[in-house]
Specification:
Blueprint (H helix, E strand, L loop, with lengths): L1 H16 L3 H9 L113 H16 L8 E5 L1 H4 L1 H11 L6 E5 L7 H4 L6 H5 L30 H14 L2 H5 L2 E5 L4 E4 L4 E2 L6 H22 L3 E5 L1 H9 L6 E5 L13 H12 L6
Parallel strand pairs: 2-3, 2-6, 6-7
Antiparallel strand pairs: 1-4, 4-5
Helix pairs in contact: 3-10
Length: 381
Protein backbone atom coordinates (compact mmCIF):
# COMPACT_ATOMS: atom_id res chain seq x y z
CA UNK A 1 0.00 0.00 0.00
CA UNK A 2 2.82 2.37 0.83
CA UNK A 3 4.23 1.90 -2.64
CA UNK A 4 0.88 2.70 -4.17
CA UNK A 5 0.57 5.87 -2.12
CA UNK A 6 4.05 6.93 -3.14
CA UNK A 7 3.13 6.51 -6.79
CA UNK A 8 0.05 8.68 -6.32
CA UNK A 9 2.06 11.39 -4.56
CA UNK A 10 4.75 11.28 -7.24
CA UNK A 11 2.12 11.60 -9.95
CA UNK A 12 0.60 14.56 -8.15
CA UNK A 13 3.96 16.29 -7.78
CA UNK A 14 4.69 15.83 -11.49
CA UNK A 15 1.28 17.24 -12.34
CA UNK A 16 1.94 20.35 -10.23
CA UNK A 17 5.36 20.80 -11.79
CA UNK A 18 3.75 20.94 -15.22
CA UNK A 19 1.47 23.81 -14.24
CA UNK A 20 3.94 26.59 -14.89
CA UNK A 21 7.54 27.61 -15.05
CA UNK A 22 7.09 29.13 -11.60
CA UNK A 23 6.51 25.65 -10.19
CA UNK A 24 9.93 24.53 -11.51
CA UNK A 25 11.60 27.47 -9.80
CA UNK A 26 9.68 26.70 -6.64
CA UNK A 27 10.93 23.10 -6.57
CA UNK A 28 14.55 24.29 -6.79
CA UNK A 29 14.03 26.80 -4.01
CA UNK A 30 12.42 24.21 -1.73
CA UNK A 31 14.40 20.98 -2.27
CA UNK A 32 12.88 19.34 0.83
CA UNK A 33 9.30 19.84 -0.23
CA UNK A 34 6.78 22.38 -1.39
CA UNK A 35 5.34 25.05 0.85
CA UNK A 36 1.62 24.86 1.79
CA UNK A 37 -0.66 25.12 -1.24
CA UNK A 38 -2.88 28.19 -1.48
CA UNK A 39 -6.41 27.61 -0.17
CA UNK A 40 -8.03 27.79 -3.61
CA UNK A 41 -5.74 25.03 -4.86
CA UNK A 42 -6.17 22.72 -1.89
CA UNK A 43 -8.57 20.46 -3.75
CA UNK A 44 -5.79 19.59 -6.20
CA UNK A 45 -3.42 18.37 -3.52
CA UNK A 46 -2.04 14.90 -4.26
CA UNK A 47 -3.52 13.47 -1.07
CA UNK A 48 -7.05 14.62 -1.97
CA UNK A 49 -9.22 11.75 -3.23
CA UNK A 50 -11.13 12.05 -6.48
CA UNK A 51 -14.70 13.24 -5.85
CA UNK A 52 -17.17 10.41 -5.47
CA UNK A 53 -19.87 9.85 -8.05
CA UNK A 54 -22.67 10.03 -5.48
CA UNK A 55 -21.68 13.62 -4.59
CA UNK A 56 -23.28 14.81 -7.82
CA UNK A 57 -26.97 15.13 -8.64
CA UNK A 58 -27.50 14.04 -12.23
CA UNK A 59 -30.41 13.34 -14.51
CA UNK A 60 -29.67 9.96 -16.06
CA UNK A 61 -30.35 8.99 -19.64
CA UNK A 62 -30.69 5.46 -21.02
CA UNK A 63 -27.56 3.83 -22.39
CA UNK A 64 -26.72 0.76 -24.42
CA UNK A 65 -23.27 -0.82 -24.05
CA UNK A 66 -21.39 -1.86 -27.15
CA UNK A 67 -21.67 -5.60 -27.90
CA UNK A 68 -18.22 -6.32 -26.44
CA UNK A 69 -18.69 -4.20 -23.35
CA UNK A 70 -20.11 -5.42 -20.05
CA UNK A 71 -22.43 -3.02 -18.27
CA UNK A 72 -20.65 -1.83 -15.06
CA UNK A 73 -22.20 -2.78 -11.74
CA UNK A 74 -22.50 0.33 -9.56
CA UNK A 75 -25.51 0.55 -7.22
CA UNK A 76 -25.03 4.27 -6.75
CA UNK A 77 -26.25 4.98 -10.29
CA UNK A 78 -29.49 3.00 -10.06
CA UNK A 79 -31.83 5.98 -9.46
CA UNK A 80 -33.44 5.61 -12.92
CA UNK A 81 -31.20 3.60 -15.23
CA UNK A 82 -27.58 2.75 -15.65
CA UNK A 83 -26.44 5.26 -18.17
CA UNK A 84 -24.62 8.31 -19.41
CA UNK A 85 -25.21 11.69 -17.86
CA UNK A 86 -27.09 14.53 -19.52
CA UNK A 87 -27.91 16.88 -16.63
CA UNK A 88 -25.92 19.48 -14.76
CA UNK A 89 -24.35 18.69 -11.39
CA UNK A 90 -24.88 20.45 -8.08
CA UNK A 91 -21.10 20.43 -7.77
CA UNK A 92 -18.89 20.71 -10.82
CA UNK A 93 -17.86 17.16 -11.71
CA UNK A 94 -14.73 15.91 -13.44
CA UNK A 95 -14.71 16.43 -17.19
CA UNK A 96 -17.53 14.47 -18.77
CA UNK A 97 -18.40 14.33 -22.46
CA UNK A 98 -20.50 17.34 -23.43
CA UNK A 99 -23.98 17.13 -24.91
CA UNK A 100 -22.52 18.18 -28.26
CA UNK A 101 -19.98 15.33 -28.37
CA UNK A 102 -20.56 12.65 -30.93
CA UNK A 103 -21.70 9.38 -29.31
CA UNK A 104 -18.69 7.16 -28.83
CA UNK A 105 -20.37 3.78 -28.87
CA UNK A 106 -20.01 3.11 -25.16
CA UNK A 107 -16.45 4.46 -24.77
CA UNK A 108 -15.88 5.50 -21.18
CA UNK A 109 -14.60 8.89 -20.09
CA UNK A 110 -10.98 9.43 -19.11
CA UNK A 111 -11.94 10.32 -15.53
CA UNK A 112 -13.76 7.69 -13.42
CA UNK A 113 -13.57 5.57 -16.54
CA UNK A 114 -15.10 2.56 -14.85
CA UNK A 115 -18.14 4.59 -13.86
CA UNK A 116 -19.12 7.00 -16.60
CA UNK A 117 -20.49 5.74 -19.94
CA UNK A 118 -20.57 8.19 -22.83
CA UNK A 119 -23.63 10.24 -23.73
CA UNK A 120 -26.26 9.24 -26.26
CA UNK A 121 -27.95 11.91 -28.37
CA UNK A 122 -30.62 13.87 -26.52
CA UNK A 123 -34.22 12.78 -27.10
CA UNK A 124 -33.19 9.47 -28.66
CA UNK A 125 -35.26 6.54 -27.39
CA UNK A 126 -32.59 4.00 -26.48
CA UNK A 127 -33.00 1.00 -24.20
CA UNK A 128 -30.40 -0.18 -21.71
CA UNK A 129 -30.07 -3.86 -22.55
CA UNK A 130 -32.82 -6.29 -23.43
CA UNK A 131 -34.06 -6.43 -19.82
CA UNK A 132 -35.16 -2.78 -20.16
CA UNK A 133 -37.22 -3.27 -23.34
CA UNK A 134 -40.95 -3.22 -22.54
CA UNK A 135 -42.93 -6.37 -23.19
CA UNK A 136 -45.26 -6.45 -26.17
CA UNK A 137 -48.39 -4.47 -25.41
CA UNK A 138 -46.76 -2.29 -22.75
CA UNK A 139 -46.61 1.49 -22.99
CA UNK A 140 -43.26 2.97 -24.07
CA UNK A 141 -42.79 6.29 -22.22
CA UNK A 142 -42.62 9.17 -24.68
CA UNK A 143 -43.47 7.03 -27.70
CA UNK A 144 -46.69 8.87 -28.61
CA UNK A 145 -44.89 12.21 -28.63
CA UNK A 146 -42.14 10.71 -30.76
CA UNK A 147 -44.66 9.33 -33.29
CA UNK A 148 -46.32 12.75 -33.49
CA UNK A 149 -42.93 14.38 -34.05
CA UNK A 150 -42.17 11.93 -36.87
CA UNK A 151 -45.46 12.78 -38.58
CA UNK A 152 -44.93 16.53 -38.30
CA UNK A 153 -41.36 16.30 -39.56
CA UNK A 154 -42.52 14.23 -42.52
CA UNK A 155 -45.09 16.93 -43.33
CA UNK A 156 -42.33 19.55 -43.38
CA UNK A 157 -40.02 17.45 -45.56
CA UNK A 158 -42.70 16.68 -48.15
CA UNK A 159 -44.06 20.22 -48.23
CA UNK A 160 -43.31 22.09 -51.43
CA UNK A 161 -42.59 19.07 -53.62
CA UNK A 162 -43.95 19.42 -57.14
CA UNK A 163 -45.11 16.69 -59.50
CA UNK A 164 -45.40 16.56 -63.27
CA UNK A 165 -48.30 15.24 -65.34
CA UNK A 166 -50.16 12.98 -65.20
CA UNK A 167 -50.34 13.99 -61.50
CA UNK A 168 -52.58 17.05 -61.30
CA UNK A 169 -53.45 17.25 -57.59
CA UNK A 170 -51.81 16.09 -54.35
CA UNK A 171 -53.42 15.79 -50.89
CA UNK A 172 -51.59 15.44 -47.59
CA UNK A 173 -54.08 14.36 -44.88
CA UNK A 174 -51.40 14.79 -42.22
CA UNK A 175 -52.03 18.51 -42.76
CA UNK A 176 -55.77 19.03 -43.26
CA UNK A 177 -56.86 15.97 -41.21
CA UNK A 178 -54.14 16.37 -38.62
CA UNK A 179 -56.53 16.48 -35.66
CA UNK A 180 -57.91 13.01 -36.33
CA UNK A 181 -54.47 11.61 -37.18
CA UNK A 182 -53.04 12.80 -33.86
CA UNK A 183 -56.10 11.43 -32.05
CA UNK A 184 -55.37 8.07 -33.69
CA UNK A 185 -51.78 8.14 -32.41
CA UNK A 186 -52.57 9.32 -28.90
CA UNK A 187 -55.53 6.99 -28.36
CA UNK A 188 -54.12 3.78 -29.81
CA UNK A 189 -50.36 4.28 -30.15
CA UNK A 190 -47.33 4.34 -27.88
CA UNK A 191 -47.14 0.63 -27.06
CA UNK A 192 -44.46 -1.83 -28.00
CA UNK A 193 -46.14 -3.90 -30.68
CA UNK A 194 -45.43 -7.37 -31.94
CA UNK A 195 -46.28 -6.45 -35.54
CA UNK A 196 -46.09 -3.23 -37.53
CA UNK A 197 -48.40 -3.28 -40.56
CA UNK A 198 -47.23 -0.85 -43.25
CA UNK A 199 -49.60 0.31 -45.98
CA UNK A 200 -48.58 2.07 -49.18
CA UNK A 201 -50.39 5.45 -49.09
CA UNK A 202 -53.87 6.82 -48.36
CA UNK A 203 -56.87 5.73 -50.37
CA UNK A 204 -59.17 8.47 -51.70
CA UNK A 205 -62.08 7.39 -49.46
CA UNK A 206 -60.03 6.28 -46.46
CA UNK A 207 -57.12 8.17 -44.96
CA UNK A 208 -57.60 10.94 -47.53
CA UNK A 209 -60.92 11.65 -45.79
CA UNK A 210 -60.16 10.86 -42.15
CA UNK A 211 -56.39 11.04 -41.55
CA UNK A 212 -56.38 7.45 -40.22
CA UNK A 213 -54.57 4.67 -42.15
CA UNK A 214 -57.13 2.59 -44.09
CA UNK A 215 -59.59 4.97 -42.43
CA UNK A 216 -63.04 4.08 -43.68
CA UNK A 217 -65.24 6.73 -42.04
CA UNK A 218 -67.62 4.23 -40.43
CA UNK A 219 -64.83 2.27 -38.75
CA UNK A 220 -63.06 5.45 -37.63
CA UNK A 221 -66.23 6.48 -35.79
CA UNK A 222 -67.19 3.07 -34.40
CA UNK A 223 -64.16 0.77 -34.07
CA UNK A 224 -61.66 3.56 -33.34
CA UNK A 225 -64.08 5.78 -31.45
CA UNK A 226 -62.69 8.99 -32.98
CA UNK A 227 -64.51 12.21 -33.78
CA UNK A 228 -63.54 15.64 -35.00
CA UNK A 229 -63.50 18.10 -37.85
CA UNK A 230 -61.45 17.73 -41.00
CA UNK A 231 -60.32 20.78 -42.95
CA UNK A 232 -59.85 21.01 -46.72
CA UNK A 233 -56.66 20.69 -48.78
CA UNK A 234 -55.30 23.91 -50.27
CA UNK A 235 -56.24 22.71 -53.74
CA UNK A 236 -59.29 20.45 -53.97
CA UNK A 237 -59.85 18.20 -56.95
CA UNK A 238 -63.47 18.77 -58.09
CA UNK A 239 -64.03 15.02 -58.37
CA UNK A 240 -62.44 14.20 -55.00
CA UNK A 241 -63.97 16.47 -52.32
CA UNK A 242 -62.88 15.92 -48.72
CA UNK A 243 -65.87 15.36 -46.42
CA UNK A 244 -64.12 13.92 -43.38
CA UNK A 245 -66.21 11.63 -41.19
CA UNK A 246 -69.28 12.64 -43.20
CA UNK A 247 -67.94 10.81 -46.25
CA UNK A 248 -70.58 8.32 -47.37
CA UNK A 249 -68.38 6.36 -49.77
CA UNK A 250 -66.75 3.27 -48.35
CA UNK A 251 -63.04 2.49 -48.30
CA UNK A 252 -63.15 -1.22 -49.12
CA UNK A 253 -59.53 -1.80 -48.08
CA UNK A 254 -60.25 -0.18 -44.73
CA UNK A 255 -63.46 -2.12 -44.23
CA UNK A 256 -61.60 -5.37 -44.79
CA UNK A 257 -58.60 -4.56 -42.60
CA UNK A 258 -60.45 -3.00 -39.67
CA UNK A 259 -63.34 -5.44 -40.05
CA UNK A 260 -60.87 -8.31 -39.69
CA UNK A 261 -59.29 -6.61 -36.64
CA UNK A 262 -62.70 -6.21 -35.03
CA UNK A 263 -63.80 -9.78 -35.74
CA UNK A 264 -60.47 -11.30 -34.67
CA UNK A 265 -59.68 -9.23 -31.57
CA UNK A 266 -63.04 -7.85 -30.52
CA UNK A 267 -61.89 -4.32 -29.71
CA UNK A 268 -59.41 -1.69 -30.83
CA UNK A 269 -57.68 -1.89 -27.44
CA UNK A 270 -56.95 -5.61 -27.84
CA UNK A 271 -55.82 -5.19 -31.46
CA UNK A 272 -53.44 -2.30 -30.77
CA UNK A 273 -51.71 -4.20 -27.98
CA UNK A 274 -50.26 -6.39 -30.73
CA UNK A 275 -50.39 -4.30 -33.91
CA UNK A 276 -49.76 -0.80 -35.17
CA UNK A 277 -50.97 0.29 -38.61
CA UNK A 278 -48.95 2.89 -40.47
CA UNK A 279 -48.89 4.26 -44.01
CA UNK A 280 -45.45 4.47 -45.62
CA UNK A 281 -46.30 7.56 -47.69
CA UNK A 282 -48.94 10.04 -46.46
CA UNK A 283 -49.59 11.66 -49.85
CA UNK A 284 -52.54 11.06 -52.17
CA UNK A 285 -51.86 11.53 -55.90
CA UNK A 286 -54.65 12.20 -58.40
CA UNK A 287 -54.72 12.54 -62.14
CA UNK A 288 -56.83 15.11 -63.98
CA UNK A 289 -59.67 12.61 -64.26
CA UNK A 290 -59.65 12.09 -60.49
CA UNK A 291 -58.10 8.65 -60.84
CA UNK A 292 -55.87 7.61 -57.95
CA UNK A 293 -52.18 7.29 -58.91
CA UNK A 294 -50.10 5.14 -56.57
CA UNK A 295 -46.52 6.07 -55.56
CA UNK A 296 -44.97 3.19 -57.52
CA UNK A 297 -46.26 4.77 -60.74
CA UNK A 298 -44.71 8.20 -60.14
CA UNK A 299 -41.82 9.66 -62.12
CA UNK A 300 -38.65 7.95 -60.74
CA UNK A 301 -36.97 11.24 -59.79
CA UNK A 302 -40.10 12.45 -57.98
CA UNK A 303 -40.54 9.10 -56.27
CA UNK A 304 -36.94 9.11 -55.05
CA UNK A 305 -37.44 12.39 -53.19
CA UNK A 306 -40.54 11.06 -51.47
CA UNK A 307 -38.97 7.73 -50.56
CA UNK A 308 -35.94 9.38 -49.00
CA UNK A 309 -38.13 11.16 -46.45
CA UNK A 310 -40.54 8.25 -46.01
CA UNK A 311 -37.74 5.73 -45.41
CA UNK A 312 -36.34 7.89 -42.64
CA UNK A 313 -39.76 8.20 -41.00
CA UNK A 314 -40.33 4.44 -41.21
CA UNK A 315 -36.93 3.65 -39.69
CA UNK A 316 -37.65 5.98 -36.78
CA UNK A 317 -41.09 4.47 -36.26
CA UNK A 318 -39.61 0.97 -36.12
CA UNK A 319 -36.89 2.08 -33.70
CA UNK A 320 -39.55 3.45 -31.35
CA UNK A 321 -42.11 0.64 -31.45
CA UNK A 322 -39.54 -2.19 -31.50
CA UNK A 323 -41.73 -4.74 -33.35
CA UNK A 324 -40.71 -8.33 -33.97
CA UNK A 325 -42.41 -8.32 -37.39
CA UNK A 326 -42.66 -5.53 -39.96
CA UNK A 327 -45.19 -6.53 -42.58
CA UNK A 328 -46.00 -4.74 -45.80
CA UNK A 329 -49.66 -4.61 -46.76
CA UNK A 330 -48.98 -5.30 -50.43
CA UNK A 331 -45.73 -5.73 -52.37
CA UNK A 332 -44.75 -2.07 -52.71
CA UNK A 333 -44.74 -1.49 -48.95
CA UNK A 334 -42.81 -4.73 -48.39
CA UNK A 335 -40.10 -3.63 -50.84
CA UNK A 336 -39.80 -0.25 -49.11
CA UNK A 337 -39.40 -1.98 -45.75
CA UNK A 338 -36.60 -4.11 -47.19
CA UNK A 339 -34.95 -1.00 -48.62
CA UNK A 340 -34.66 0.36 -45.07
CA UNK A 341 -32.44 -2.62 -44.17
CA UNK A 342 -33.63 -2.89 -40.57
CA UNK A 343 -31.74 -5.37 -38.41
CA UNK A 344 -33.42 -7.46 -35.75
CA UNK A 345 -36.92 -7.67 -37.25
CA UNK A 346 -38.61 -10.20 -39.49
CA UNK A 347 -39.89 -8.66 -42.72
CA UNK A 348 -42.71 -9.99 -44.86
CA UNK A 349 -45.88 -9.05 -46.69
CA UNK A 350 -49.56 -9.85 -46.73
CA UNK A 351 -52.14 -9.60 -49.48
CA UNK A 352 -53.43 -6.07 -50.05
CA UNK A 353 -57.17 -5.82 -49.25
CA UNK A 354 -57.92 -3.63 -52.27
CA UNK A 355 -60.89 -4.72 -54.44
CA UNK A 356 -58.54 -4.26 -57.40
CA UNK A 357 -56.85 -7.46 -56.20
CA UNK A 358 -59.14 -10.36 -57.26
CA UNK A 359 -57.64 -12.72 -54.65
CA UNK A 360 -58.63 -10.32 -51.87
CA UNK A 361 -62.31 -10.34 -52.76
CA UNK A 362 -63.04 -13.56 -50.88
CA UNK A 363 -61.90 -14.59 -47.38
CA UNK A 364 -59.22 -11.90 -47.19
CA UNK A 365 -58.93 -12.19 -43.41
CA UNK A 366 -58.46 -15.95 -43.48
CA UNK A 367 -55.81 -15.73 -46.20
CA UNK A 368 -53.94 -13.01 -44.30
CA UNK A 369 -53.88 -15.07 -41.11
CA UNK A 370 -52.34 -17.95 -43.05
CA UNK A 371 -49.68 -15.60 -44.42
CA UNK A 372 -48.92 -14.23 -40.95
CA UNK A 373 -48.63 -17.76 -39.57
CA UNK A 374 -46.08 -18.62 -42.27
CA UNK A 375 -44.04 -15.62 -41.12
CA UNK A 376 -44.06 -17.05 -37.60
CA UNK A 377 -46.75 -14.83 -36.10
CA UNK A 378 -49.28 -16.83 -34.13
CA UNK A 379 -52.54 -15.03 -33.40
CA UNK A 380 -53.99 -17.70 -31.11
CA UNK A 381 -57.59 -18.80 -30.98
Amino acid sequence: MAGCNAEIVDAGVKKKRRRSHASELCSRKYPHGYPQLPQDEAEFAPSSPLPKLDSFAFTLTRYIPTPTEERPEHPEIEQEDRGGFEGSATKKPPKFPSECDEPRGGKLSDVHESLVPSLKPRNAIVFCGEDAVPDFGEIIPGACDALVEIALKLVAELDGLSFKAPVSCVYNPLVYAQDLHLQYIRKHGGRRVETLLVGMNPGPFGMAQTGVPFGDSKFVRTFHGLSGEVNHPKVVHPKRPVLGLDCTRSEVSGQRLWGWAQDRFGSATAFFKRFWVYNYCPLVFMEASGKNRTPDKLNPAERAKIELACNEALIKTISILRPAFVVGVGKYAAVKIQDCNIAGVKVGDIMHPSPANPQANKDWGKKVEEQLLKLGLELGK
